[in-house]
Amino acid sequence: MHLDGLTLYGLVAVVLMLLFYALEERATIFVLLFAISCVLASIYGFLQGAWPFGMVEAVWSIVALRRWWLRRLAEKKP
């Protein structure tokens, strides 16, 4: 197996997604970091030519950003 730069980038993006998803309950920042890692995975999908993967990850990033925003607002309420 050849591990080129794009493959390594994709591996890191997906590992970060998994890590931050597992840590989401600990702090709101992990939800935001999960969303960012979804964006990174989406970019990987498009760069690799797997546009369905890129689209799904883009949607996941929007869903995660919304969850982060709602959790952040809930934390600010008295």
Q: Helical amount among residues, as a percent range?
A: over 70%
Structural class: mainly alpha
Described by the principal axes of the CA atoms, the overall outline is elongated
Let me know the number of strands.
Answer: 0
The description of the largest β-sheet is:
none
Low-confidence stretches: none
Radius of gyration: 14 Å
Strand content: under 5%
N-to-C series of helices and strands: HHH
Terminus-to-terminus distance: 54 Å
Helices, by number, come to 3
Q: What integer is the average pLDDT?
A: 95
Description of the structure:
The structure is a single chain. By secondary structure, the protein is mostly helical. The chain contains three helices and no strands. Helix 1 runs antiparallel to helix 2.
In short:
The chain has 78 residues and is an all-alpha fold. It is built from three helices and no strands. The N and C termini lie far apart (54 Å).
